[in-house]
Design goal:
By secondary structure, the protein is mostly helical. Helix content is about 70%, strand content about 0%. The two termini are about 40 Å apart.
Length: about 130
């Protein structure tokens, strides 16, 4: 709860700069680069650690920051979040977090398997009900 509030607060502060830069008529591609380099990392910091425990409301709160960024970037061309994602070719944050978790798990399994708990079958030699 508090972590998501801190992250969205910090990211919203950075959106202020994105709005200011919009007034200089930067190309859309540059505004997207600023968002993906300066704002989005705040919303994804250490995602593999906290993503599995997010509530739907917390996930929506994070997604709302990206929606505001897209509205800023596209201005009058913004009609919906879905359309903006297509136009800007950027996925939902929840999909990015899932992918970050998958990559983290794969890297952990490949490079540091001793950091993972043993597989259920490796813990004991007793049978389980479900095989």
């Amino acid at each position: 709860g508090k972590q998501v509030t801190r992250m969205t607060g910090k990211a919203n502060g950075r959106l202020f700069f994105l709005r200011k830069l919009k007034h200089f008529n930067l190309p859309t591609e540059d505004l997207v680069t600023i968002y993906t380099s300066f704002v989005r990392p705040v919303l994804e910091y250490c995602a593999p650690v906290w993503h599995p425990g997010l509530t739907c409301a917390q996930s929506d709160k994070l997604e709302a920051v990206q929606r505001r960024a897209f509205r800023t970037i596209l201005g009058r061309r913004f009609t919906s979040y879905e359309q903006a994602r297509e136009v800007l070719n950027l996925p939902m944050l929840s999909h990015r977090r899932q992918e970050l978790c998958r990559k983290f798990g794969t890297q952990l399994q490949t490079h540091s398997p001793s950091m993972l708990p043993p597989k259920g079958s490796d813990c004991h030699d007793r049978g389980t009900r479900h095989r």
